[in-house]
């Protein structure tokens, strides 16, 4: 589904990605872990087309998408949940999701109000992520946890084939984290997911395979079980004591 | 029933506006109010078009007068060169010329944002102004383009002040309906998305550069129509119509009235017209500097009422209801 070949990216003299190659097959749930500064967010941003790589290639279903812009990639089925919340702050939760729903039909529709079906679809998505009853609340008035849920609703409303999740549970309470984790776990198995996450419980709950990134390189790659056994070896890279269940 | 009542009220208001010269005739023999209202409505169309950019799409253009001027020149030149005063021809020429100019300038500016967008639109509009000012053979240069004819629609002649007013008022109602129809549609909602978070819009699959360009061309076209109406009304096009002063005037009108709302640019044009045309006559001769008064009013709004007249009105209404 996704193939990354020898991806490189430097910012000035700082090398963020130093030749990363990996393959994620269709329907796979892959976690990307590693210490701060390992290049995880850079990798996600390059996949989403937010920043161009210095070298290397990105393929989606065998097609080279390295030169495509983010909106073109979105139309090919890539959805991105950002590490820091990126929403439309004066709009309601419903309007936020409706913008994602409407993206498929295109913006060049004038004089008529947006069809009710778009809002109905948006409301259904909000209910799915646990925001039922919060549809009319503007983003500014939502709690941090609710905004993260809304981020996920917006991304899912795009009807993606690939979901790029950059720390979806960042800053959430344990209860909210558990809820979001179960929500992601319950998503359609046909959906390919790449998730950057620091919370190892979330990683091992969700991921089929885990890739460990350190200083811009892949230092370990395997099934969740493999890496779990391997984690002690690498906990120096993870920079913290990892509790292995 | 309530939306129907609202529509009926709006229709009555529109009809009253369009027929103003006829029911005001008994007490308005000098036609001062008609002329004042006509020019205020032209400014309102111009400001409504700019607000599509400033208020809706978050594109603060300081070069919008380029399209107003282009429309005026195109209408005037078309009527002189083609020797016709037919409205579809001259107004069509104005719309096409303004749209093409907006397309060319738009392609150059839509990828920049904020202060860069502001400076780029300003610079490119100054080039348009310079061309208008220098190209004497076509535009009349510093003398301007005089003798622009009042338009005709088949055999209906708009040369009388009253009918000229009616034409402007109808255009205003149509422009208002157009902007309202755009703002409430998925298109308007997408422009709001671009204004609030362009990066996320792109991530959702919107080609935001094209969206911004479409808004720029649309706004430029409506500004061009306003420019043509101004040329018909005053029978004259000046290079200043395409100049920075006129761009700033529209910008101030939008901000003073309230950006991003339908009522804002309209309220703003009423206030600006009063300051330009009525307030000076109430002051001693040495204080009759409308630009300075407008500047002070603008500063007051920037300091005390960022949301403009519409925002102040909304706040007052909410406070009244809360009591």
Task: Write a compact overview of the structure shown.
The complex is a heterodimer of chains A (245) and B (323). Chain A has helices spanning 40-48, 70-75, 93-103, 116-128, 144-157, 174-185, 200-206, 224-238; strands at 2-11, 14-24, 29-33, 55-60, 63-64, 78-81, 162-166, 192-196, 209-214, 217-223. With 245 residues, chain A is α/β, with parallel strands linked by helices.
Any overview of this molecule?
The complex is a heterodimer of chains A (about 240) and B (about 325). Chain A is of the alpha/beta class. Chain A has helices spanning about 40-50, 70-75, 95-105, 115-130, 145-155, 175-185, 200-205, 225-240, and strands at about 1-10, 15-25, 30-35, 55-60, 65, 80, 160-165, 190-195, 210-215, 215-225. Chain A contains 8 helices and 10 strands. In chain A, the strands form 2 sheets. Chain A has a 6-stranded mixed β-sheet with strand order 6-7-8-3-9-10, sandwiched between helices. Chain A has a 4-stranded antiparallel β-sheet with strand order 2-1-4-5, with helices on one face. Chain A is globular, with a radius of gyration of 18 Å. The two termini of chain A are about 30 Å apart. Chain B is mainly alpha-helical. Chain B has 16 helices and 4 strands. Chain B has helices at about 1-20, 20-25, 30-55, 65-80, 85-110, 115-135, 135-140, 160-185, 185-195, 200-205, 210-235, 245-255, 265-275, 280, 290-305, 310-320; strands at about 145, 150-155, 155, 235. In chain B, helix 3 (about 30-55) packs across helix 13 (about 265-275) and helix 4 runs antiparallel to helix 5 (about 85-110). The two termini of chain B are about 30 Å apart.
